[in-house]
Every structure is written in structure tokens, then in C-alpha cells.
Specification:
The chain is mainly beta. It has one domain: Galactose-binding domain-like (Jelly Rolls). It is built from one helix and nine strands, in the order E-E-E-E-E-E-E-H-E-E. The strands form three sheets. It has a four-stranded antiparallel beta sheet with strand order 1-7-4-5, with no helix packed on it. Strands 6-2-9 form a three-stranded antiparallel beta sheet, with no helix packed on it. Strands 3-8 form a two-stranded antiparallel sheet. A hairpin with a 2-residue loop joins strand 4 and strand 5.
């Protein structure tokens, strides 16, 4: 799943994108350039050179196999906590003072 949005970044220090709670691995792209990837918390990404600009953010979350396995071949190894996926927590743009 890819989440996309244009964001007007306030002038000042370069911000940090905090994705909050994520289920799956994630990559963050700003204006077509990858700024980072993560497969575990914290899901925070520096956004260099974005201060004072309108930028396009693309956040791609890759799911685990647990939801597929639970549906296609019921198994005792897919736990309920593994069945959710995507951006689950508050997504914030943190600006340093």
C-alpha cells in the first residue's frame, strides 16, 4: 500500500517525519527520491532540504505474509496481532526549534 500526499513544509529546520505505529516494512520517498527504509520502530525519517517547500511524500508499507496465510491456509502460526497492516499510529511532521 502506498500513501501519498503533498505537504507544505514550514520554513526553518528540516523536519522529521514520524510515522507512529506501522505494521510491515516501510519506505519513504520525497519528490521521487528515497529518504529511508525501515522494518522496525522507530519509524522516523529525516527530510533534508524540504523546509519551506511543497513536497510530495510517498510512504509505501509492505505487508507481512501473516494475513495471506491466515486466509489462504489457516494456520496456528498467524496470530491476531499480526493480521493488521499499514500505517496504524499518528503520522506527524516534527519541526525542531
Amino acid at each position: 500500500m502506498t500513501y501519498s500526499r503533498e505537504v507544505e513544509v514550514p520554513a526553518g529546520s528540516d523536519p522529521v517525519l514520524d510515522l507512529g505505529r506501522v505494521r510491515g516494512s516501510v519506505s519513504v520517498v520525497v519528490d521521487g527520491e528515497c529518504v529511508g527504509e525501515a522494518f522496525c520502530p522507530p519509524y522516523r525519517f529525516q527530510l533534508p532540504g524540504t523546509a519551506g517547500r511543497l513536497v510530495r511524500l510517498d510512504v509505501t508499507v509492505n505487508n507481512t505474509l501473516a494475513p495471506y496465510l491466515a486466509e489462504a491456509t489457516p494456520t496456528a502460526w498467524a496470530f491476531p496481532s499480526q493480521l493488521s497492516s499499514g500505517l496504524l499510529g499518528s503520522v506527524t511532521l516534527r519541526i525542531r526549534d
